[in-house]
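Entry 14. Two folds queued back to back today. First construct below, sequence then structure tokens.
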Amino acid sequence: MASIPYIDIHTHQVDSDPEILSIINMTIGESKIELNKDQAYSIGIHPWDIEKLEIDSIDNYLEVLSADKNNIAIGEIGLDKLIGTDISIQEKFFIAQLQLAKLKQKPVIIHCVKSQEELLRIKQGNETGTEWIFHGYNKSLQLAEDLLKFGFFLSFGESLLRNEKLQNVFQKLPLDKIFLETDDKHINVREVYQKAAELKGINIEVLKKQILLNYLKCF
């Protein structure tokens, strides 16, 4: 029987380790030619890249990329109030990509910075029929509980290794709504799994099995 993989739900680095199942994040300007032929990836227009495109130009771009069998999610997409792009413009791009996720029946990987109220409002009016994964979660328990009520999965990365407040939040959350990731950090996802298992007081194989179940539910 094959061993249960470590799942890195959101990363910017290709990992050749056969024990790690990585979902590579792709953005405009990047080429999937560099990926192995069977490498799973997500694709989307990040809020930081919106100014490079016109809203009317994104349909064909995303349609072509999302048709690839290795594209298993739309993302990372979302909202970010720390950048200069008007939030209303960000919302238009976000909703357009949510419509694609609904059409293609693919989960979405969410980037959200200081825009939680807008995110929840948009989710209420734009259900995709697929799962939404809030990546890089490092906020409060209250927000985590609010997101869970709206059906989100929460993904934790490097911050879980060192942020005691976040560790306390993580300990209180259900494992069936959790993912782990490395994002753009130069760490091994095994480190995140080890810390997560420690915080939950469970064997790492138990954790791997639950996250695999979460993955199969979403993808």
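Second construct, same run, same settings:
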Amino acid sequence: MVLKELEVVTLFVGDIAATRAFYEWVFNVDIVYSDDVSAVFGFGGVMVNLLQSKQAPELVSPLETGGEGIHMLLTIRVEDVDVESARLKTLGVALLNGPTDRPWGRRTAAFADPAGHVWELAQVI
């Protein structure tokens, strides 16, 4: 068996309604499934599951959720980071940084969702 087919990334969120609305507004991706505690969005071949934080212990026990600082960065490849950054600004989304040319051959810009998950736009340069 080879563990190489990423299917779902689950992000724990405090306010499912606000975070879901943000994803619908900013990403404009299809909803695969939703209920009172979750919303699953299709991002190409990978799904992103927003899950109410109170539901998380069942999935990660005996570990605990939370902690300080950012623990991951999700990257979406785009054709033009500057165009997408400008579009985000018109939607009222504040950039954390960028657009910036990186030494590893990408132009990037980052922003956070209402739950604090950081997303990066990346363009091959």
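Quick look at the second one. The CA atoms of residues 108 and 122 lie 5 Å apart. Strands lie at 8-13, 31-34, 38-43, 46-52, 73-77, 95-101, 106-112, 118-124.
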